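Lecture notes, part 5. Sequence design as translation. It can be helpful to think of inverse folding as translation between two languages: the language of shapes and the language of residues. The source text, in structure tokens, appears below.
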């Protein structure tokens, strides 16, 4: 049996550094993808060729042992086994992709989602419900990538990759997903080629933002962070310790910006200029309050805007990695501007979610 599975990377339009606080985000799948193409037969050896990383991986599904903190190809098998959905198989597969690696475009989530889809199809069990509701696959991929390794990430990456398009993700209470009309098109992704430490950045920003809300509780009453408005909190922000005050203000304002962007995107005729302005404001808080930008990223953003982009912002955890520019009608010019700033540009558009097909039912 031959299986092909493919999942996209993502950009975060609104709500960066918000999902782990329980706040909503608006993210978009892009048309850069991780592709897995393989053969499935009887046995119990999983052999994966990863030419982009110049490595191979081989292991049995029984007695899996992790050898590093990003052993997602093994952890996905373990998660599916725990669900009682995995039947041992021999798999010979090749993993390729054009999503920039460790650059903030969720290459690891795309890998986890594509591999989870592949494994479910390979299991031979009735897994149709998972493909009818891709958020179920996203949850398994999240468990494999984050919970198995006790890491700090939220669910934005896996859910956006599995669902595709532009999606509003609400993490307050029981998580809900709302696909939004694709009112935004024509972007350029820019890879700064500056290495970043995602977990270090997430820990710093998350700790400071959560500390900020705890301090705010000394001055106003609220049931949870989700229901504190920026306007309500503003009179008391000067009472919060100065070292965490910028983090708290960013959390409050980026939540408000995300809500305003959702309302605009749901309109029959969204005001693109307003959406672009909100995106630029969002980046301002990421840069100035959370300190997650980088001088090279700022140069790429500045040159993109000068070349005609309507908006540009850092993408992902920050302190390196990628930015993107929203630049309808100006993709080529913006790509050249990013190249002149020393970045690697990718002309991108909104992409589809997980696609997994059995292409050959023979041996």
């Amino acid at each position: 049996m031959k299986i092909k599975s493919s999942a996209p990377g993502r950009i975060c339009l609104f709500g960066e550094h918000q999902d782990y606080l329980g706040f909503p985000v608006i993210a978009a799948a892009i048309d850069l993808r991780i592709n897995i193409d393989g053969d499935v037969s009887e046995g119990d050896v999983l052999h994966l060729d990863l030419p982009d990383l110049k490595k191979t991986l081989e292991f049995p599904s029984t007695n899996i042992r992790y050898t590093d903190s990003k052993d997602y190809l093994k952890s996905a098998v373990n998660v599916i086994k725990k669900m009682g959905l995995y039947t041992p198989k021999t798999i010979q597969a090749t993993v390729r992709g054009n999503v920039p690696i460790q650059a903030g475009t969720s290459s690891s989530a795309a890998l986890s989602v594509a591999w989870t889809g592949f494994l479910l199809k390979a299991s031979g069990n009735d897994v149709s419900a998972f493909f009818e509701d891709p958020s179920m696959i996203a949850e398994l991929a999240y468990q494999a990538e984050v919970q198995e390794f006790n890491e700090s990430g939220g669910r934005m990456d896996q859910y956006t990759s599995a669902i595709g398009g532009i999606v509003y993700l609400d993490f307050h209470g029981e998580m809900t997903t709302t696909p939004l009309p694709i009112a935004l098109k024509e972007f350029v992704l820019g890879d700064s080629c500056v290495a970043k430490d995602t977990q270090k950045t997430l820990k710093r920003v998350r700790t400071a933002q959560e500390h900020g809300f705890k301090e705010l509780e000394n001055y106003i009453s609220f049931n949870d962070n989700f229901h504190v408005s920026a306007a309500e909190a503003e009179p008391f922000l000067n009472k919060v310790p100065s070292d965490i005050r910028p983090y708290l203000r960013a959390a409050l304002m980026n939540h408000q910006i995300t809500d305003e962007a959702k309302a605009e995107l749901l309109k029959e005729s969204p005001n693109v200029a307003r959406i672009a302005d909100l995106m630029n404001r969002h980046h301002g808080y990421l840069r100035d309050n959370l300190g997650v930008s980088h001088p090279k990223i700022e140069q790429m953003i500045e040159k993109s805007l000068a070349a005609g982009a309507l908006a540009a912002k850092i993408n992902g955890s920050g302190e390196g990695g990628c930015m993107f520019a929203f630049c309808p009608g100006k993709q080529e010019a913006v790509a050249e501007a990013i190249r002149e700033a020393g970045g690697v540009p990718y002309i991108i558009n909104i992409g589809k979610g997980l696609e997994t097909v059995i292409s050959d039912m023979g041996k």
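The translated text above is only one of many valid answers, since several sequences can fold into similar shapes. The chain has two domains: 2-181+351-360, 187-348.
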